[in-house]
Amino acid sequence: MTVERSLRGIAGFFILVSLLLAHFVSIKWLWFTGFVGVNLFQSAFTNWCPMMTILGKCGICEK
Q: b/e for 13-41, b at 16 or more Cβ within 10 A?
């Protein structure tokens, strides 16, 4: 699995979990959803995302 595919999966998971938490726990969890979205948006322009660095250090390689 590539870093980019892993990144998309993790971002989707974070968004879905934060939406569930916003619905069942507190609406303030939508701030986390927004944070993930802003990170994805800035990575489109800079080609850098903190999660990509973390995944690289965990050994997930580009294939």
A: ebbeebeebbeeeeeebeebbeebeeeee
Residues 5-41: pLDDT tens digits?
888 999 999 999 999 999 999 999 999 999 999 999 9
- CA–CA distance, 59 with 63 (Å, rounded to integer): 12
* H helix and E strand count, the chain: 3, 0
Query: Token pair of 21, please?
Result: 């938490």
Vertex 41 angle, CA 31 and 36, to 5° = 30
pTM value is 0.82
